[in-house]
Design brief:
266 residues, alpha/beta, Glucose Oxidase, domain 1, two-stranded antiparallel ribbon, 6 helices
Length: 266
């Protein structure tokens, strides 16, 4: 069995950039030498020379948001309610993620042939699924491969990729999919590209509110969980792999970091 890592690292922005300035994580590394001093606070009169090579533990302190790195959004991120289509209820938070949804058949559609910022429709999804001879079923974990990974680690990453429209998102969820993912910064089209469309509609005095965060807002009608900032979706087959994606359990949170991993049978 082959394992494929589908998650980007939590890393300082001076090494790789995956988020705009306000959303970048900060990792502070403490050395083994510092650890030797800290261990003295726990063990009175302990000196570095009492430790192997004078070194103690290494630790890190991380400052980040729940949407840093590869993460999973909960319906609570989209709105305080979900499932208006079938019976409105309070939106689930990430600590309420059903564990049985964290393992499932991985289905990947390749959308690198679309122009940047293109919004996929339900017809586009069906066409892509037909191309890989797959019909979505209950429990499939549906992921979208875009051109965004070509810009991994640069400030341009957030400006690339396609978006999943409200129509396309609901079409996927209605077929029994509970978890989706994308290797772009967002399930929706890049904000910079959507903002241009918005400004144009405002200038024409016809503000088009339907384009604002439409893929996310689909969760108001039907709740679903989504992973963003994935990687290596081009290294797994369109169908046939299994994905494991359990979010960190953060009380009442809108998202949680996830180490998504795919397995491919030998």
């Amino acid at each position: 069995m082959k394992f494929i890592d589908l998650s980007i690292p939590l890393i300082n922005p001076d090494e790789l950039i995956f988020d705009p300035p306000l959303g970048t994580p900060k990792v502070e590394y403490k050395t083994h030498e510092t650890g030797a001093v800290e261990m003295g606070f726990v063990f009175p009169k302990l000196k570095p020379e009492h430790l192997p090579d004078g070194k103690g533990w290494a630790t890190e302190t991380i400052t980040l948001g729940t949407h840093s790195g590869t993460h999973m959004d909960a319906p609570w991120h989209f709105a305080p309610i979900q499932d208006k289509e079938v019976g409105k209820k309070k939106a689930l938070t990430i600590d309420e993620f059903p564990l049985e949804w964290g393992i499932g058949p991985l289905v990947v559609i390749d959308c690198t042939d679309y122009e940047e910022g293109y919004i996929l429709t339900s017809e586009d999804v069906d066409k892509k699924l037909k191309g890989i001879a797959h019909t979505l079923k209950e429990g499939d974990i549906f992921c979208v491969h875009t051109n965004a990974p070509k810009h991994f680690g640069t400030k341009e990453y957030i400006n690339h990729g396609v978006g999943m429209g409200k129509d396309a998102t609901l079409h996927i969820v209605r077929q029994g999919v509970h978890v989706v993912g994308i290797d772009a910064w967002s399930w929706d089209a890049p904000f910079t590209l959507t903002a241009k469309k918005w400004k144009k509609s405002v200038k024409e005095q016809k503000p088009d509110t339907s384009i604002i965060w439409e893929g996310h807002f689909a969760g108001i009608d039907l709740g679903y969980f989504q992973m963003e900032k994935m990687m290596n979706l081009d290294k797994v087959p369109p169908v046939g792999a299994t994905v494991y994606c359990f979010p960190i359990k953060i009380a009442r949170a809108s998202a949680g970091w996830v180490r998504a991993v795919a397995t491919i049978p030998d």
